[in-house]
Amino acid sequence: MAAFPQKNGAARTFQLRSNGKFALMYKSFFNLKSAPFGSSPDPRFLYMMPHTREALAGLEYGISARKGFIVLTGEVGTGKTTLLRRAL
Known about the structure:
With 88 residues, this protein is α+β, with helices and mostly antiparallel strands. The chain is built from three helices and two strands, in the order ββααα. It has helices spanning 25-29, 50-64, 80-87; strands at 2-5, 11-14.
């Protein structure tokens, strides 16, 4: 069991699954429509900033023009995989 404080001071508890992961804890606590933190990035949650749009345009051009090799580099956690999933 895990407990999280509520605004009224009471703790809200959540049952753990047998494999040790929280069973939709975030979804129920924050009243989310879908489960967060999936095993693979979801392009629906890609935040399009100017540099993200530029990278996506480059990927889409490379794919549509049938370029043989496209390089996309960046630091860990910058959204490379999410961007590729969005382009495809």
